[in-house]
Specification:
The complex is a heterodimer of chains A (about 260) and B (about 240). Helix content of chain A is about 30%, strand content about 30%. Chain A has about 260 residues and is α+β, with helices and mostly antiparallel strands. In chain A, strands 1, 2, 3, 4, 5 and 6 form a 6-stranded mixed beta sheet that branches. A 4-stranded antiparallel beta sheet of chain A has the order 10-9-11-12. The radius of gyration of chain A is 19 Å and the shape is elongated. By secondary structure, chain B is an alpha+beta fold. In chain B, strand 1 and strand 2 form a beta hairpin. In chain B, helix 1 packs across helix 2. The chains are: A alpha+beta (about 260), B alpha+beta (about 240). The interface between A and B is medium-sized, with 31 and 30 residues.
Chain lengths: ~260, ~240
Amino acid sequence: MSIPLVPELLRKHLADLAESDMRIDGRGRFESRAISLEVGILPRAEGSARVRMGDTIVLAGVKFQLMTPYPDRPNQGGLMCSAEVRPVAGRSWEPGPPSPQSIELGRVVDRGIRESGCIDVDELCIIPGERAWQVILDVYAVSDDGNLFDAFALAGIAALRSAVVPAERFEIGEDYPLSVSKTPTMCSYHKVGGRYVLDANKKEELGGDERIHITLGDDGHVHSLQKGLKGIFTAAEFDEIMEHAIERCAELRGMVNNAIKE
Amino acid sequence: MGGYGDVQMIDEKGLRMDGRKPSECRPIEIETGVVPVADGSARVRWGLNEVIAAVYGPMEAHPRKIQRQDRAVLDVRYNMAPFSTTDRIRPGFNRRSREISKVTAEALESVVLLELYPRSKIRVEIEILCAEAGTRCAGITAASAALAHAGIPMTDLVVSVASGKVNGVVVCDLNKEEDNYGEADLPMGILPNSGELVFLQMDGDLSQEDFKTAWDYNMEAASHIHEIMAKALKGGVA
């Protein structure tokens, strides 16, 4: 069994490793696990992606629905982003209504995508006041070995970038690619053994402290931040991870661009 | 919309729209170990269906009131991902998924040696990632492969497959169009080594003769799927 019964022992072990600047799986502080990203893998979804980061595996699927625009925004369609961690993804995810953790996950991923303005909701309007597209992005965990945040964000934006508006099925013209003007990507840092590390695995999450999620858009603009769990951090610590995030988010963006091109 | 028989599903050569003979299954692939954090897992790709099943346990059953003194409880969930169908599915349980979870659990309880693990729980999670008719059969098949992959003792595997009837012809393993316009559907859960059954449903309209044919098609298909499953399990167990 991979989940330690005594997290205190794990904390101690992680702190000991940190002393000599090591991590439990041998990675460097700001070294990510190997990432694979594929798009167009779910035939029933209008856009889809699968991300694998070590033993963490997530899927994202985009569906479209017709909606009546809200009375106060007659010229706008909608974007909805929902995250689900079902009990299939790990021993610690219990069946039942969404837990606070999974709600936080969904909302942080949603904010990064929404606030970047990558989807222009005005363009989703078909007939003002009457009909508009609602874009629904569902991100979904298959296997949770830590850092679902970054995996969800990466799969989510890749699925949107690959999405095709199913206009033919709704008998309103020809299908066309969804316009996505930016590629926001997320980097998450976890305090493990007293210092921040990138892309924590499940053991590091269990035996670590607070975490910080940074979503950056094209040109490094900041679109969403979230500090989670109990813990205190300094401005200097934040500066260090932000500096790293600028570089890493750009790399992830390149990965999305490559996956879409293929 | 779509009454019986107004769509031509069988051509003059007796072949189906996707080119299959009446007794033929869609292509099936089974792979194990697809959920690395689970104790056992399997993916079934069956036509356009993509189904994963993950098994956790045996582990302590809690709350205590669900414990059984003489055996383990099998906690089975069947769920369709929101993006698995043409129209998005709202997350959460519905009556259909509850019923399928129940009959799947009862099918699997018939083969798992639950009495070896008193007071414990085995969780079986079936997730439909992409749906194209026959997801309950694919789910049961995936779940039995995942249980075997987890090393849980069973008297036999369970292979599930459905046959039905379209345009008056009995056919094996209905695809989406055949399921939508078909006249009958007969899903069965078969123990491939003994030919016994642990799961049976049916809806529609079948003559006694057609029922017999559908039954035989399912039995034939089950031994074909069993071969694929056995191969996946032998190659997949680390």
